[in-house]
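Complex 291.
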Amino acid sequence: MYNKLERNDACWCGSGKKYKVCHFNQDERIKLYKSKGCIVPNRSMIKSTAQINGIRESGKVNIEILDYITDQIQIGMSTGEIDRLIDHKTRELGGIPATLGYDGFPKSVCISINHEVCHGIPSDKVILQDGDILNVDVTTKVNGYYSDSSRMYCLGNVSADRLRLVDAARKAIDVGLEKARAWNFLGDIGQAINDFTRSMGYSVVKEIGGHGVGIEMHEEPYVSYVSKSGTEMLLVPGMVFTIEPMINAGKAGVILNKANGWTISTKDGKDSAQWEVTVLITDSGYEILAY
Ligand code: MF3
Ligand code: CO
Ligand code: CO
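Predicted structure with MF3 bound:
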């Protein structure tokens, strides 16, 4: 797969540069890892400069939407109202809310409160209460490029237990980002996050993880947070994926709401928290594209 091009040919990435001064060295290094039995990304998982620029612009809109919601959100509001604000803001900024209609998802954002883990469906019947913690997960499409990030919001008088959980979920992102560098493995990120989470007395959801993102909302690779260091896919400059561990205060088990077909909650009814970042692997480390 990596040896068809001659060194003086135009690079496969579309940069217009000769292969030998573009992706040649990187491809040789990937081949070496592959020959040792490592899981390596294929070319579709390594974004070109033009694609990265597109995803970066999408990420800017994604961040602006979350910043806007940070200013607006308050006790007494319904999650349906937040959905309308996000839908409107996204379009105002030239984007499309990517969750709307995705596999039939009915709304422009996922909002998951307290014991809900992810894929909460906004509703005019769900009113934000004093003491709630909630995740607002925004996926944005701009000029064909996708970005995906989420934040937690703590409303009013939030218990110390909930604040600690939300803080740990945020720190889990930092712990993962520390391992987000080229020639590490996805499992390095997964294990670091899992070790940290357990050290806090919490557990990581096993069934749902992060994903490549950019050309589609969900691309390969799948990013597990229950993986082992030195395993899973090799990280290579140009890869774009999310880090989005779901952290449960109690046990890791989750259940799907069969009535709405979407919302995942903790099995034990205890709280869950999640932050999500879209990250680009660079030559020197990483760049956050949405958070
Ligand atoms: N934004 C979610 C994620 O982090 C995906 C939501 S898909 C939906 O991957 F259909 F539930 F909206
Ligand atoms: Co995501
Ligand atoms: Co998301």
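The first helix runs from residue 24 to 35.
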